[in-house]
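Escalation from tier 1.

The customer reports that the assembly of two entities below gives different structure tokens on two consecutive runs. Tier 1 could not reproduce it. I'm attaching the input and our single run for tier 2 to review.
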Amino acid sequence: MDSGRDFVSTSEVEQKQIIEIIPLRGALAELLGSEVAAFYERAGLCCDD
Amino acid sequence: MLADVDSIFRDKIPFGVVILPHQGGYLFYSAFRKEFARIPSTNVDLGLAMMELERDRFFTVPVVQPDRTVRVTLIVTTDCNLRCKYCYVAAGDHPEYMPLWLARKAIGFAVPPEAEELFISFFGGEPTLNFEVIRGVIQGIESSSLQFRPIISTNGVVPDDVLQFLIEKDFIIKISLDGPPDIQDQYRVFADGRPTSEIIESTLRTLTREGIQPRVRVTLTNETLVRVEEIIEYLASVGVNIVHMELVSQRGRAREQGFERPTPDEYVEAIVSAIEHCRRKGIQFVTSSLLRLFAPATHYCTSLSGRKFVFTPDGLITSCIETQNYLTAPPQFVLGRYVPEKGTYGCDWSRTVPDIRNIMRKCKQCPLVSVCCGGCPIRNFNITGKISEVDDWQCEVRKKLLSKVIVDMYNESLKAKEETDQL
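Tier 1 run:
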């Protein structure tokens, strides 16, 4: 990728170790990703509904 | 700084992914995958990192299925039994009622034969003032084989028999209620100034008695913003367990009366506080700035993107429920109208905006665009006079709020992972 900056080059193995993937979990995600929020999208509701 | 991310990643941020600067590195959030990826330093080969994430399918976008869901909002009247001081459509000032024949024409136009599901919303003014049309529409849909779910946005000042009908027909009932009586009765009053809080509380009691989950839409003002904790305590005390909060819209009476907005920081602080209190109380919370956190899209709202029809009493199809008639609807929000000579509606689809990135220059390369979507078009328009130009206040609020919430979710996810790893 042409990022427009000089980055320190790392090998692919090192890179893999650097990236840490974390699954989304927790009470905040549950609250904001509730079925109510999903219903807004499915039913086409918006801020003024 | 978000601007740094913007300049480094340019237009290389995959759709549905947010990249934030985080503790000397970058935090990637994939809304579709519901995962975070953390790169702890900015001094790494980002190209290689992106390739690695691509290989792990971190950037996966789900295949879009044909949308056979139809969404219709009928503004069945612009009349209202209240005169709320900030009403964005000044309901009741120019009352019009949608006749049943026009409502049927609207449904006939909006629902194609291949439709599988219909969400039908009744809106106003106070929609229950045109109860005969609501009943007539529901009876008409019931006589078809279409699967449907009715929704109503009401002020809660509703006669008992009408409320019973809504309950029997399994409506999703959204009630506007701003908080404890002193707040409610300051803003949401009858034309003669009489208070409404006792009536709304009675309506809520009826709903909870019938086993209906009361959903409440709270309008925040500059004055009530500092009382969100108290507002949520009150709502919990009257049995509400779904809360939707928004700031007063700068339109209609709110604009005439000079309702001012708080600073973006004050508003963000209030919403963060509301989230925290709802969490403690076990109340589900919704606010428009965060609705796309798990549902990235190229459009902010279904109406402007052509995925929903809003029909007005005087025969317009508009792209926003804040635009309700010929007198007040800005032409940019009018998609079509009923054509008497043809006996049906005509719609100009070229006026819809399926992808906001095509018109909103400032948003196009923003790292948050797919979970922000440029903000509410009418609220942008109210301030900037253009759909395509984002309101700076709204932009700042969304950037701060989305960034904070994403980082908070990451911290919780990390903690949960560490706890699991220890087991």
